[in-house]
């Protein structure tokens, strides 16, 4: 029997290598430089250590710092490095979990009577760098459940014992570097040597296992880099991010607020914020109308049986607001966690022929999910949020065409809002384990191929992630980079074979037989709350003209010209231009400075000469004096610019 295996690389080339070869060996066979830079590897879609022996044919991707998987291994190892430093500095400390996150890592710890404060972080950083310079090797070890329990019992790690009790024997591994051993699946760097720059960012509280009834642990957040220059750039970005924080700008521009009396995580949209949000909604509704969507509205609650049918009760029941009972015995409702079950019921109200499909139902529907108070964060993590939801019921042969149309809509939105830097992730089934997915192999193959071809035809850069599909179908997620280079997931398109089955949805085919439609979930914004938060931080509150809550502000130079200022405002309002008048008894220089801070795109100064000539003196945000214009000329120019921005793509 041959001991040779075939290694397929991302470019399609195949290497025949000896069984037991490691990703590091493969890197060395390509170049010594690559071997020095590789941090982890991806084997058939799964992240692994670079020293993992490969025993069968596999698709291998070698991951460097530039790769998301490389950063994940780097920051996961950094979490262990921080734990090792804490173990030296605070003997007896107990460890919870310490994962890599999108930017950096954290570790939840119980330091007993010790209170770790922000002032202690530099000391921990110094110890981490000292340990990293030792270039400690990380050793992975498979261990039996009984041995794992014995080891962590001896070391007094009670939280680890609880985690081990939830694991199956034969699936447990540990990683050791220096004097520190952790319960962990990995993957990790081969050693701590690549970690050259460390910054611990904050200290917070976190309930053990996210349970508010359990002990609150200390969570320490940090980030590391292979070069100090990268850390310096990151810290500069953080400083700029503080200035762009949507919570800060939202308060300054009077867009939204929160009230303890209303409840945590339930935003109040103020008049200016409501204008912003309605403009976004109207913009999408206008596009959707062109693409054949029908607008629907559904209640904020639904009978519990609806969500049991859809499966959302089993999925979200424990994390949702409690069931609402009525005076009628046995009657129970839930706050709506998803819009899709309601749309299934709308589809089912009448019979459909293959000629009727696709049916496209759209709704700006508010949904409710209980988030722990410690997880709430401005508009990005709330308990009540509105999805720009739509559900497309189509035939299997229409999936690709519908994907292309949804992608067109997303491109229009991104261009109109200056999100120029975006990419897509195609989430497909596992290449090996198909047992967890519903739907036929034929339908899955067709849907996955449709998504891949749609991206190719649209010229959209997309990378494929295996084992990331939902159990009910493959999906396409859009990742946007904002002005600071941060990545946000905004739009998503998902294929669903599950809900049509659960709700027994049908259409009559050309063969006069009953068939299941394919359901496509689509949300270009995602949620209005999160999208507005990202938009605020991307633009620093300087919204494009078409979207600005106040597009124009009129500044009379003295009270004598307030009447003329109001006449100008009325004339612009006739053209649906959002306008306000700053008639405070202040000098015009002060008014200009104040309104610059409000990020209003245009300021119109009016005084004696402007009143006599029927003109306005124009100042553009951030650019200063732009000359004098007739009111009608200014209005026409602004309307052309607004229309141009809204039609930036199609």
Can you characterise this structure?
The structure is a single chain. By secondary structure, the protein is of the alpha+beta class. The chain is 35% helix and 26% strand. The strands form eight sheets. An eight-stranded mixed β-sheet has the order 16-20-21-28-25-24-22-23, with helices on both faces. Strands 2-1-5-3-4 form a five-stranded mixed β-sheet, sandwiched between helices. Strands 6, 7, 8, 12 and 13 form a five-stranded antiparallel β-sheet that branches. The model has no long low-confidence stretch (mean pLDDT 92).
Tags for this model:
650 residues; single chain; globular; alpha+beta
Name the beta content range. Answer: 25-35%
Termini separation (Å)? 60 Å
Name the shape in a single word: globular
Give, in spatial order, the strands making up the sheet with the most strands. 16-20-21-28-25-24-22-23
Cα-atom Rg, whole angstroms? 29 Å
| Broad structural category | alpha+beta
How would a crystallographer describe the biggest sheet?
Answer: 8 strands, mixed
Q: Please bin the fraction of helical residues.
A: 25-40%
User: What is the count of DSSP helices, taking H or I runs of 4+ residues?
Assistant: 20
């Amino acid at each position: 029997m041959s001991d040779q295996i075939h290694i397929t690389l991302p470019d399609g080339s195949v290497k025949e290598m000896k069984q037991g070869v490691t990703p590091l060996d493969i890197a060395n066979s390509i170049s010594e430089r690559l071997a020095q830079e590789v941090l982890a590897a991806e084997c058939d879609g799964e992240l692994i250590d670079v020293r993992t022996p490969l025993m069968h044919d596999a698709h291998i991707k070698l991951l460097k710092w530039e790769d998301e998987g490389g950063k994940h291994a780097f920051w996961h190892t950094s979490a262990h490095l921080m734990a090792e430093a804490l173990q030296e500095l605070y003997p007896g400390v107990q460890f919870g979990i310490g994962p890599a996150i999108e930017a950096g890592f954290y570790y939840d710890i119980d330091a007993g009577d010790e209170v770790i404060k922000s002032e202690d972080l530099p000391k921990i950083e110094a110890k981490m760098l000292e340990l990293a310079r030792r270039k400690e090797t990380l050793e992975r070890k498979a261990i039996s459940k009984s041995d794992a329990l014995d080891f962590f019992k001896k070391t007094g790690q009670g939280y680890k014992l609880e985690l081990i009790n939830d694991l199956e024997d034969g699936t447990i591994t540990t990683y050791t570097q220096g004097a520190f051993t952790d319960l962990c699946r990995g993957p990790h760097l081969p050693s701590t040597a690549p970690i050259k720059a460390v910054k611990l960012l904050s200290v917070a509280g976190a309930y053990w296992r996210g349970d508010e009834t359990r002990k609150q642990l200390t969570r320490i957040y940090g980030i590391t880099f292979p070069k100090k220059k990268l850390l310096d750039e990151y810290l500069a970005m953080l400083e700029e991010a503080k200035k762009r924080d949507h919570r800060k700008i939202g308060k300054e521009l009077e867009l939204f607020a929160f009230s303890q009396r209303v409840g945590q995580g339930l935003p109040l949209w103020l008049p200016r914020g409501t204008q912003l949000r309605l403009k976004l909604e109207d913009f999408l509704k206008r596009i959707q109308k062109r693409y054949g969507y029908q607008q629907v509205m559904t209640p904020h609650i639904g009978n519990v049986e609806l969500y049991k049918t859809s499966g959302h009760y089993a999925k979200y029941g424990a994390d949702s607001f409690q069931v609402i009972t009525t005076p009628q015995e046995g009657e129970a409702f839930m706050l709506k966690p998803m819009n899709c079950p309601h749309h299934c019921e709308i589809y089912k109200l009448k019979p459909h022929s293959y000629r009727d499909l696709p049916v496209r139902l759209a709704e700006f529907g508010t949904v409710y999910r209980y988030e722990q108070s410690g997880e709430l964060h401005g508009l990005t993590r709330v308990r009540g949020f509105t999805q720009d939801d739509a559900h497309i019921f189509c035939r299997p042969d229409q999936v690709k065409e519908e994907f292309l149309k949804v992608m067109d809509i997303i491109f229009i939105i991104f261009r109109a809002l200056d999100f120029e830097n975006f990419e897509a992730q195609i989430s497909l089934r596992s290449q090996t384990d198909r047992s967890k997915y519903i739907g036929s192999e034929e339908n899955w193959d067709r849907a996955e191929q449709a998504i891949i071809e749609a991206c190719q035809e649209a010229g959209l850069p997309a990378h494929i992630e295996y084992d990331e599909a939902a159990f009910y179908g493959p999906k396409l997620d859009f990742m946007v980079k904002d002005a600071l280079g941060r990545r946000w997931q905004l739009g998503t398109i998902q294929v669903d074979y599950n809900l049509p089955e659960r709700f027994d949805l049908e259409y009559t085919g050309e063969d006069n037989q009953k068939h299941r439609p394919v359901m496509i979930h689509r949300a270009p914004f995602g949620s209005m709350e999160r999208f507005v938060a990202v938009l605020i931080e991307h633009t620093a509150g300087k919204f494009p003209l078409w979207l600005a809550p106040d597009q124009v502000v009129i500044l009379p130079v003295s009270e004598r010209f307030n009447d003329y200022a109001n006449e100008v405002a009325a004339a612009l309002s006739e053209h649906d231009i959002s306008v306000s008048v700053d008639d405070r008894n202040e000098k015009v220089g002060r008014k200009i400075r104040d309104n610059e801070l409000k990020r209003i795109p245009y300021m119109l100064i009016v005084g004696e000469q402007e009143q006599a000539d029927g003109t306005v003196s124009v100042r553009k945000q951030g650019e200063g004096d732009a000359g004098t214009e007739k009111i009608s000329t200014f209005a026409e120019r602004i309307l052309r610019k607004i229309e141009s921005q809204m039609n930036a793509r199609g």
